[in-house]
Amino acid sequence: MEVQQFYYDNKIVKNFLYATILWGVVGMSVGLLLAFMFLFPNVTDGISWLSFGRLRPLHTNAVIFAFVGNAIFAGVYYSTQRLLKARMFSDFLSKFNFWGWQLIIVAAAITLPLGYTTSKEYAELEWPIDIAIALVWVAFGVNLIGTMIKRRQRHLYVAIWFYVATFVTVAVLHIFNSLELPVSALKSYSVYAGVQDALVQWWYGHNAVAFFLTTPFLGLMYYFVPKAANRPVYSYRLSIVHFWSLIFIYIWAGPHHLLYSALPDWAQNLGVAFSVMLIAPSWGGMINGLLTLRGAWDKVRVDPTLKFMVVAITGYGMATFEGPMLSLKNVNAIAHFSDWIIAHVHVGALAWNGFLTFGMIYWLVPKLFKTKLYSIGLANFHFWIGTLGIILYALPMYVAGFTQALMWKDFNPDGTLAYGNFLETVNEIIPMYWMRAIGGSLFIIGMLVLVYNIIVTIRSGSKVENELAEAPALTRVSSKRTAGETLHTWLERKPVQMTILATVAILIGGLIEIVPTIMVKSNIPTISSVKPYSPLELEGRDLYIREGCVGCHSQMVRPFRSEVERYGEYAKAGEFVYDHPFLWGSKRTGPDLLRVGGKYSDNWHFNHMYDPQSTSSGSIMPAYQWLIFNKHDRSAIQDKMQTMVTLGVPYSEEEIANAAQSMEDQATAIVERLKEDPDLKRSFEENESAIGADYVPMKDREIVALIAYLQRLGTDIKVKETGELLTENK
């Protein structure tokens, strides 16, 4: 049997490891800044691109796609070559994957703070960057599958199964959720509207967690934990059950993010049922990981790499127990929109993704640079301060979440809300926000310790070289099952068939939930009084999206007594038929805004955006003063309306042609109402008498468009005192 010599590509692994560490520091630093913004809301006062609403998606994208994404590629490129006994299929594709991914991250770091966003959670990037993501991801997939085809190891190890499922599913999710119609180079509207957009988004959002933060990391767990412990995986059979049940069930669970919303009940209930089932395969993976360490627990005591991996797997187990519990309707009724969800997400992100990445880095770097880790003591210090940081982050957020839920739902004996002012809840949980900021600070200190430890380790080592390896080429065998060969053993030597089966497994749930919601009209009953936004309101909505208001304010009143009492009539599916994209939100740092239209005067909104504390004492909302002074660019309004027509919004040709005049008339009316405030009127008169080319009339400023949108919210629904709609559903 001829033995072939070849070289593993270690340089691409090194590049991805460097990027992981760099973007980890950046993403976590932005997260820490955001945590302190809850305590010092005006810390970036007046700087639009450093406002909370614009930085929040930068933080989530940086930690998910830059930090975790680069860690995935580093681990996959290292382990795939060794598991398949082959160099990666194409050096060009490897480099294209690396540089393309870094350019996408840089593009995100530029566009998100500038306000170019679709507002869809974990999918905020605009359409040109979405196309780039698809191209780079396909390059990664071609490289992975090409390597599988030219492998020298016949059977595919369990880690490879998870890598394949990750590639296929993320491709499907990204493409379908990112279907949008461009208006300009950096502006687009989702092709889905309202309820349908919400379902597709959380089908994507939940499964971005499933197939970007979970399945690739399970593959890394199945490779690096046995390597670090020098023990075989506990159970081959359990890994088979774990893999197939996980990828089939996970894809159904997205609707549990939309419980008690305007989503049809049948879709909500499907999401709940499959979410509860998820606990079995998830814990199957955790058990397989932890029991792999049987007989190696003495190593855990002294090896920081294994310490990180044990806590990572434990964090995965905790998060995947809590997830199904949170999907139960009675638990979700308490937790949703609260800081409980923030705690849940960060147990998974910091422990599972963060710690497994740290363990992988500490294991890989000495091997790549042919040296020993500079300091085991510093690595142990990183472990303990990081663990303490997670605890100090998560526990206060659980307390904050419980506090919010109890206060939001509390009634006086006379039937009035015990805490009618939303800010009473906000002020109550400020101490928990302090503890979160301290916990986050400890976690990032640990990250900086890792940076120092790794830099000194690299300096003490030798230059990374491609590693010589040898293995015999595969000989042809029957494509049919041989005697005694199980179905799965046969499948493990058939990469194409395995990829097709994995694709089928993940498509079933998505098709059954999404196709009826989009195709069957009875799922989304229309309401005759609901009309499209006026041109000025549409522009105001785009400003609302640009500033990231959806990150703190929901637009979804659930059918609970406490919410109807506080916010007004609960949300109906037909209200959102012209919303491209939907803006239901997932967190209430501030009150729900679905029924805010007409609740406050135009002057109140003006003053609130200029200085939130002047209208709402104790508010932690930052000021948005640039909206008061910036000229509103209305040049694209006709293109925006025309795009909406393509998406099914019934603007007439006359409305589009007269858009500029319509905006002028509505803006002038708002300014006249603003002048009813003596202080504002005096300010206007002083400004209007000013001489200079830079002067912008108040009717042309961004704040006026935003006020138009806010005053429209919820006003299409007219309800009798009995709660019955005045209009008939068509």
Automatic annotation (TrEMBL):
Q: Which domain of life is it from?
A: Bacteria
Q: Which Pfam families match?
A: COX1 (PF00115), FixO (PF02433)
Topology in membrane: Multi-pass membrane protein
Q: Does the keyword Ribonucleoprotein apply?
A: no
Say yes or no: keyword Transport present. Answer: yes
Q: Tell where it localizes.
A: Cell membrane
> What reaction gets catalysed by this protein?
4 Fe(II)-[cytochrome c] + O2 + 8 H(+)(in) = 4 Fe(III)-[cytochrome c] + 2 H2O + 4 H(+)(out)
| Residues annotated as domain Cytochrome c | 535-714
Which pathway does this chain act in?
Energy metabolism; oxidative phosphorylation
Chief site of localization: membrane
- Which spans are transmembrane here? 16-40, 60-78, 98-116, 128-149, 156-176, 202-224, 236-253, 273-293, 305-321, 341-365, 377-399, 433-455, 500-519
The Enzyme Commission number assigned here is 7.1.1.9
Q: What class of enzyme is it?
A: translocase
Q: Keywords of this protein's UniProt record, alphabetized?
A: Cell membrane, Copper, Electron transport, Heme, Iron, Membrane, Metal-binding, Respiratory chain, Translocase, Transmembrane, Transmembrane helix, Transport
* All copies of domain Cytochrome oxidase subunit I profile, residue ranges: 16-498
- What cofactor does this chain's UniProt record say it requires? heme b; Cu(2+)
Q: What family is this protein classified in?
A: Belongs to the heme-copper respiratory oxidase family.
Q: What is this protein called?
A: cytochrome-c oxidase
Biological source species? Maribacter arenosus
* Gene transcribed to yield this protein: ccoN
